[in-house]
Amino acid sequence: LYARFDNPALHALNEQLAGADGLIIATPVYKASFSGALKTLLDLLPERALEGKIVLPLATGGTIAHMLAVDYALKPVLNALKAQEILHGVFADDSQVTDYQHKPQFTPNLQGRLDQALETFWQALHRPSSRAPALKTLQRVEHV
């Protein structure tokens, strides 16, 4: 398998990521890890592709036993790509989603958790990015 880092589609993705403040990553969990397709895509990104980004991970899996895959498999990769903040994600097992093939339906509990996660994501995107400049200003005033 050879990576084509000069691929126009990959360049377009990198440009979109560079212009984004945040990213929602959704994946199925299979054999205690996130999907191979997502892993391949993440492997093609530059080392600091998620620097300064807020990331909301979403995952589905057959049973609740797969829930920790987000924490132990996906989040370390997102950290390696220098995500600024990785929010608490949402995991749904197969009993919480029906009609995958046509129009997925969520249980009320899952819908509520997704709504809350999206609200948290939106708030994270709109909060002041850093308090460091204000602290530097205060430090300068103290030293004057």
Automatic annotation (TrEMBL):
NCBIfam families: FMN_reduc_SsuE (TIGR03567), PRK10569.1 (NF007859)
Extent of the signal sequence: none
Domain of life: Bacteria
Alphabetically ordered keywords of this record: Flavoprotein, FMN, Oxidoreductase
Organism from which the protein derives: Klebsiella michiganensis
Domain NADPH-dependent FMN reductase-like intervals: 6-95
Record-linked InterPro entries: Flavoprotein-like_sf, FMN_Rdtase-like_dom, NAD(P)H-dep_FMN_reductase, NADPH-dep_FMN_reduc_SsuE
Name of the protein: NADPH-dependent FMN reductase
GO MF, any single term: FMN reductase [NAD(P)H] activity
GO biological process: alkanesulfonate catabolic process
Similarity field: Belongs to the SsuE family.
